[in-house]
């Protein structure tokens, strides 16, 4: 009986893992096909650069102590992690979607104030895309802060939500 129960538990665990893998990128709340198309050819971009809406960048991160954040990140980054600052010209519609290839915290600052996200979707089973966050902003300039990344590079796509 014990062998049967252990066998059933192992089969259930394997089935659950396969189902999670099958969910992959489809598990996001919205499609990430644009990011999948943009990330492979994303150009190397230094911290401090201006990111374009409708494009992706392979952002070079620096140790968080050297990132030069405009405001303290909402979530304090752990020691030994990486970050970067960038800017973006928000289109007249005001909505942007920021998608990342890896784990990192995103802060958006506009008019000297942190802007809370409007929606979020994160998936650990999508190769090359970890999270996608939507913000509702006013048209004009905004500062993007990325913090808490465990690696010194991060692909970032800034898109208009579909």
What structural keywords apply?
globular; 2 helices; 12 strands; 6-stranded mixed β-sheet; 162 residues; alpha+beta
Tell me what you see in this structure.
Helix content is 17%, strand content 39%. The chain is built from two helices and twelve strands.
Categorize the overall geometry.
globular
Strand content: 35-45%
Enumerate how many helices there are, as a single number.
2
Terminal-residue CA separation: 53 Å
Structural class: alpha+beta
Number of strands: 12
Order of helices and strands: HHEEEEEEEEEEEE
Q: Could you describe the largest sheet, including whether it forms a barrel?
A: 6 strands, mixed
Q: Quick check: average pLDDT?
A: 90
Strand order of the largest sheet: 1-3-12-6-10-9
Helix percent reads 10-25%
- Low-pLDDT ranges: 4-22
Short description:
This protein has helices spanning 2-23, 33-38, and strands at residues 44-45, 50-51, 55-60, 62-63, 82-90, 95-100, 105-110, 113-115, 119-122, 131-136, 140-149, 153-159. By secondary structure, it is an alpha+beta fold. A six-stranded mixed sheet has the order 1-3-12-6-10-9, with no helix packed on it. Strands 2, 4, 5, 7, 8 and 11 form a six-stranded mixed sheet that branches.
């Amino acid at each position: 009986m014990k062998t049967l129960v252990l066998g059933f538990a192992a089969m259930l665990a394997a089935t659950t893992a396969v189902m999670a893998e099958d969910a992959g990128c489809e598990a996001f709340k919205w499609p990430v096909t644009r990011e999948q198309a943009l990330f492979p050819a994303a150009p190397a971009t230094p911290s401090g650069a201006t990111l374009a809406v409708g494009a992706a960048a392979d952002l070079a991160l620096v140790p968080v102590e050297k990132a030069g954040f405009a405001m303290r990140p909402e979530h304090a980054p752990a020691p030994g992690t990486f970050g970067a600052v960038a800017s973006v010209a928000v289109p007249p519609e005001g909505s942007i979607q920021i998608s990342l290839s890896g784990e990192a915290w995103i802060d958006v600052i506009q008019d000297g104030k942190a802007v809370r996200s409007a929606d979020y979707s994160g998936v650990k089973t999508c190769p090359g895309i970890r999270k996608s966050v939507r913000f509702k902003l006013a048209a004009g300039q905004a500062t993007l802060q990325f913090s808490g990344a465990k690696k010194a590079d991060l692909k970032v796509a800034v898109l208009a939500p579909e």
